[in-house]
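Re: beginner question about structure tokens

> Can someone show what the tokenized structure looks like for a real chain? I only ever see the sequence side.

Sure, here's an example I had lying around. Input first:
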Amino acid sequence: MKYIVKGNFKISQNEFKTLEGCPERVGENVLCNYNPFLVSLKGCPRVIGENFYCFSNPLLKSLYHGYSEKVKVGGNFECGIGFSEEEIRSYFDIDGVVSFRYWSSHDDSVTSPSIIFDYSGLSVSGNFNLYDNNGLMSLEGCPERVGGDFSCVSNNLVSLKGCPRVVDGNFFCYGNEFLKSLDHGWGEKVKVGGKIHCDNTFSEEDVRKYFDVVGHIDLG
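And the corresponding structure tokens:
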């Protein structure tokens, strides 16, 4: 029997390995985050009316869902670091943007001190978030352009080298106690379409030396 859910469908923090048995259609959001044993999206809904969230699934190495056609997502798609937007859109017909999230407080996907990623030279249509990873000391490998917000909050960064050249949304880099300079090494100012929020160890003058900020500057 093919089931339909009119509202949200939440299957987070479980121990299953696949999504077999999910409804065929979900009217609102699908949330399948923080599942430590999930290895496959096979069985996921074929049609999702709003957003699809599938970040913080440490064993999920492929987004292939097993259908011959793309899964329809009426809103946005958010997954973990390690997939490309091109790969995601090869499996999903997404009306909105694609975002990426890594939050080590809720993600046991790595046993090494830091996460390894390489989005160099690429653009991301949505957000790119790197939260609370004590092993993350630089931003090498970040996408060149982020269409939404960029966040590297609460890491052990010693440098912003490798940060995006263009962030259309907001730029968050507070909570990095070892970060003593905002020099990103690009040789020109990083463009930020929204606001920037960094620690109060820096001044507005420091920020504007390295960033072309459209919005306001938050310190602290």
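Each token stands for a local structural state, so reading them left to right follows the chain. The first helix runs from residue 85 to 91.
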